[in-house]
Amino acid sequence: MIRSTLALLALPLLAGCSADPVTAQATLDGQPPIVIAHRGASGERPEHTLAAYRLAIEQGADFIEPDLVLTKDGVLVARHENEISETTDIADRAEFADRKTTKTIDGSKVTGWFTEDFTLAELKTLRARERLPKLRSTEYDGEFDIPTFEEILALLAEVNRGRDKPVGVYPETKHPSHFIAIGLPHEAPLLALLGRFGYRGRQAPVYIQSFEVRNLMDLRAKTDLPLIQLMDGEGGPADMPETSYAAMASPMGLKAIAGYADGIGPNKAMVIPRGALGSLGEPTSLVRDAHAAGLKVHPWTFRRENYFLPLGDRGGVNPAGHGDLGAEIAAYLRTGIDGLFSDNPREAVAVVATRAKR
Questions:
Q1: How many CB atoms lie within 10 A of CB 142?
Q2: Whether pLDDT at 17 is above 60
């Protein structure tokens, strides 16, 4: 089964997600779309901190999303990348200056400080920083540490106590091939922690996501928890250089993904591309094609700063200013997406709730 799926994914692109007007469509299961707090409420707090996750929960997010990397001693921690100079004060810490190095990650050379070169105790001495200081406030820099995945699951256990509908967790395995190569695979500690906190079975409030393919296939052989194949608008999986995300987004590619995953997490431009001037174009057939293959669709990432918004939804020329994020999200909801990743869960939750009342 795995060999045949890999063969399908490796086929050259025959037909991608072509432009095809699709409006007012239903989600795959007919339920309201879920709001996934992208790295927590990362538009208002430094990303991947317990403060960002807690605020996202308070704002009504259905799921919180931790990106997971590993420490030298094999502990899962939440960082967007294993290179941490953008999101911590590591560059200012003289005691760690000699750990700066250059590595090849997913085929690209990266220079900085890497989580796998530090123990958890060492990482816990660092403090988080805003990753986008030119667009967002830095007032919380230095207040929060790097959380472990266990601490995140403990937070969810605390806030879900007594809730009829628990807030879910949506972890991403970052650079799994790299971590396997250095003897620090994600799968065992990830599944062990999820199991310890009661996340078992297909109905558990959890999705596991990855941009790579074999990592998800390995997980499918070990668990029936829902899996999501992430996809970008360009390039392809780091562990499958012979294929592309464009080929995977074709009807044949989606059929192959359905053999090991429950949905896709595409770059939002794969659902509605932008024109030359930055305005939204017509939806592609991707959502419809994915639904036909039995796959849910959770595009990323929706942010309220003008820098990220379509031309028609911007609130001025200041890149850091806020525009009409709700209008952008509403356009995507009409395509039938089953959920969305947002740095601003408060705004996303409001738009989804308004649509659900219609």
A1: 13
A2: no
Q: Catalytic: 80?
A: yes
Straight-line distance from the first to the last Cα atom of the chain, in angstroms, rounded to the nearest whole number: 43
Q: Do 102 and 121 touch, CB atoms closer than 8 A?
A: no
Q: How many CB atoms lie within 10 A of CB 145?
A: 16
**Range 344-354 average pLDDT:** 96
**Residue 178 annotated among the catalytic residues of the structure:** no
Structure tokens of 209?
Answer: 């996501």
Is residue 174 helix, strand or coil? Answer: coil
Strand pairing report for 263-266 and 227-231: parallel
Catalytic hit among 48, 80, 178, 186? 80
From residue 92, give the alpha-carbon distance in Å to each of 95, 123, 326: 9, 14, 38
Segment 240-253 mean pLDDT:
96
Query: Rounded to an integer, what distance in angstroms lies between the CA atom of residue 67 and that of residue 50?
Result: 13
Superfamily of domain 2-79+149-356: Phosphatidylinositol (PI) phosphodiesterase (3.20.20.190)
Residue 12 has pLDDT above 80, yes or no: no
**Single-letter amino acid code for the residue at 59:** Q
Q: Between helices 187-196 and 214-222, what is the axis angle to 10°?
A: 40
The per-residue pLDDT for 23 is 46
Distance, CA of 95 to CA of 36 (rounded, Å):
37
Q: Choosing from 38, 48, 175, 291, which is the catalytic residue?
A: 38
Omega within 30 of 0 (cis) for the link into 301: yes
Mean pLDDT of 215-222: 97
User: What residues does each domain of the chain span?
Assistant: 2-79+149-356
Mean pLDDT of all residues in the chain? 94
Judged against a pLDDT cut of 80, whether residue 2 lies above it is answered with no
